[in-house]
Amino acid sequence: MPVKIRLQRHGKKGKPFYWIVAADSRAKRDGKFLEKLGIYNPNTNPATIEVKVDNSVEWLNNGAQPTDTARAILSYKGVLLKHHLMGGVRKGALTEEQAEEKFNAWIAEKDKAVASKVSGLDKAKADAKAKALAAEKEVNEKRALAAAEAEMPEEIVESEIIVEEAAAEVAEAVEETEAPAVEETKEEAPAAEEKAADTDSEEKAPAAAKEEE
User: Fold this and answer.
1) How large is the average pLDDT for residues 87-108?
2) Which strands make up the sheet holding 3-12, listed edge to edge?
């Protein structure tokens, strides 16, 4: 009986998740299966993948053929690597301890890379959230300022008008006080001219008297 390792769809419309199953290749995609080997949920970031590694390796050893998507998932979780290492053990190229050590080292590196990616995603989410909060705060402040200006009491508006009127009255008073000063200056000018004329006549009179003598 030919066996396929493939995905079986579950979940609701728009948000599917999948079971990784070993099933008869002649069975319907979402029909009966021989064994559930794991789950794959693409709705999370990063995607959630859980696989029974040893069970999957056993099915591969028995000739099961994974589909392209299932092969990518099994490779991501190290199933194909362990299957390859077990082949080396059967051929005598490796001991089981060496194969297990290599597999565990690979898993440790993979977990480290995944953890780094998750940390980067968390930081990006935190930065985006902080920017969104700052933008929302700015918008709220602008709205509050606009509302405060719209609800400004009439007394404040009237006081501003009174201040403007008082300033105009002060300006008019300054102009009125400056105008007489100019007029007085004009009136003093002829008086100064008459005084100068009298002085000249007085100086000329003695001179004429001397000439007559």
Assistant:
1) 90
2) 48-51, 35-41, 15-24, 3-12, 65-66
